[in-house]
């Protein structure tokens, strides 16, 4: 296992962190930590570390209704101890309620579907600095400012590299979702606004992508507010283009989203 400059193995330091904050987690809730398990490689590591540490915790997976079927089957098969929490509404219902599909700059779906649960708890996550510029500014222990009331976060492997994550998985012989072996870098929500291999995902999961198309097209309204799209097909193609600019809308439509507290949610692990 890789080590820090003081020769401490990365996994031992992570276990120390979990034990250090366990008393705070128990003060917040007698159930201990709330472990956010996405089913991705990082969450496989934090789940194993939590088990090795002996701390009290509950592991939860927030179903989004657009999860890759292989991922859900992996969780159910390999981690039956993880509680799968169903959302109050599906992605399709959420899109119709908002009246506009989620985009890279406006991923309201993260908060509503993926980051549910853990209110008033100390939440263990697999957030890492190496994942993105935005995440590189995160702290190992943080309060939650928006999503979960009175919650705290412990990003227990925040300083691990991606190579260290895979090294730990292989050395420990941990099961992981085989979508990684097929070259999928992101294995969370199918057609997530953050993914760029759109054509590949559409070929792999045609039924889920067809449901996306129906939901996105249902929000197109030829009422003059989105005149740059002449048809719902044009609108759908715009949504699939991950580099396309945000829609132009009238002031009333913009105000609707500026006033919505769910807009501008945090980046979630997918």
Number of domains: 1
Task: Give the distance, in angstroms, between the N- and C-terminal Cα atoms.
Answer: 25 Å
- Give the C-alpha Rg: 20 Å
> Main beta sheet: strand number and arrangement?
6 strands, mixed
Query: What is the succession of H and E elements?
Result: HHEHEHEHHEEEHHHHH
Strand order of the largest sheet: 3-2-1-4-6-5
CATH architecture: 3-Layer(aba) Sandwich
Helix content: 25-40%
What amount of the residues lies in strands?
A: 5-15%
Gross geometry = globular
SSE class = alpha/beta
- Put simply, the count of helices is 11
- Output the CATH homologous superfamily: HUPs
Unreliable stretches, pLDDT < 50, 5 or more residues?
249-270
CATH class: Alpha Beta
Instruction: Tell me the number of strands.
Output: 6
Explain the layout of strands and helices.
Elements: H1 10-20, H2 22-28, E1 33-36, H3 41-53, E2 57-62, H4 69-78, E3 83-85, H5 91-98, H6 108-114, E4 122-125, E5 141-143, E6 152-155, H7 162-172, H8 198-204, H9 206-218, H10 232-240, H11 251-258
Parallel strand pairs: 1-2, 1-4, 2-3, 4-6
Antiparallel strand pairs: 5-6
Helix pairs in contact: 1-3, 3-7, 5-9, 8-9, 9-10
